[in-house]
Known about the structure:
It is a single chain. Helix content is 27%, strand content 20%. It is built from nine helices and 14 strands. Strands 2-1-3-4-5-6-9-10 form an eight-stranded mixed beta sheet. A four-stranded parallel beta sheet has the order 11-12-13-14, sandwiched between helices. Strands 7-8 form a two-stranded antiparallel ribbon. Strand 4 (118-121), helix 4 and strand 5 (155-159) form a beta-alpha-beta unit. Helix 3 (101-111) runs parallel beside helix 8 (306-318). The radius of gyration is 20 Å and the shape is globular. Pfam families: Asparaginase, Asparaginase_C. Substrate binds at residues 65, 98-99.
Amino acid sequence: MNTPHSLPRIAVLATGGTIAGQAGDASNTTGYKAGVVGVDKLLDAVPALASVARIHAEQIASIDSKDMSSALWTKLATRINELLAQDDIDGVVVTHGTDTLEETAYLLHLTVKSAKPVVLTAAMRPSTALSADGPLNLLNAVTVAASASAQAQGVMVAFNNQIHSARDVTKTSTYAVDAFRSPETGVLGFVQDGRVEFQRGVTRAHTTSSEFAIGDQWPMVEIVASYAGASRVGIDAMVQAGVKGIVVAGTGNGSMHASLTDALADAVKQGVAVVRSSRVGSGHVMRNGAASDEALGTVSAGTLNPYKARVLLMLALAANAPDMQRVFDKY
């Protein structure tokens, strides 16, 4: 039986989001304000945490995650690396808003330099709502972070009793409590009633095997979408503004409107890195050889959605990675 002193010590870093949200009406949450409940109150709402881990809590930010910034990414990743380097910290949990959780999770997946567990969690309902989902998600996230089986799995997301890899997970609903899915690969495992079980492992490079490190330099990378009647106006404006990379949310298998193809070919000639992803939501964007990528100098994002492809492209550009396609094939 675990005694309080034998329990793992888990750092809980709060950044705001719906999990820390507050509304005036428990049954109508449309007007709630995100990020107003502090980390201490979040923890007080889950007394069962005391039987799972010893908690070290920090308030990193108090924002709606739609307003996540690269500066806050730097702050968060730096602090996580500092904490995990300490012998008395066994893992980290980050409470986050759902809107950009998958981007933050993937950024940390590539820049955390420890095999210790890092688990993000969130909520679809504010803390004051009827049947708020935040407390159970937080308990499960700490349970995963405290589990020996979570070592070396990279950054994970614990949500609705499921455990997802940061690389694969994406938000798929605007309202449901099971909003997060891993459409191509499925979940890593589950957590329920204190039991953590992994049903598969992570094979792509991450954390301690990643070549990328967090820094203050964030090259400008933007996203454009392909759709019926798309024009080149946005791409030309981005190139003129000094963008270093462009990710295309293409149709189908990363295909692009002819006007976008012409504009992106010109962008590549001016030294802009261009990555093809898809707006579809799942599936692999195949490298199209002489018909597209080789002729244009573009890169396939593989199974990464446009938002995660942007994260990887920013890190690769900051590191002056010599072969972008290798990077997207490896990570």
